[in-house]
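Provenance

Sequences were taken from public entries as deposited. Structures were produced by running a predictor on each sequence independently, with no templates supplied. The record for DUF2007 domain-containing protein from Pukyongiella litopenaei is shown for reference.
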Amino acid sequence: MKELFRSTDPTVMAFASALLQGEDIDCFQMDVNMSILEGGIGIFPRRMMVRTQDYDRAARVMRDNGIALGAYS
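Predicted structure for DUF2007 domain-containing protein:
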């Protein structure tokens, strides 16, 4: 697995997941349960992970849809 991007915005994560699933790219959100530690205020970013062999294709899908890679949006 390779990290595609990080975000504290759950709507960006949901949109990215939908885009990737639409392109048949498996993805996994990590750090989703960190809200227990932070009290639900959204300060810890979640990581969007994809398989290493899918990374280039997934990165292209994100760029084509205006999602910045490597950013904490």
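The beta strands are 2-7, 27-30, 46-50.
The two ends are 21 Å apart (CA to CA).
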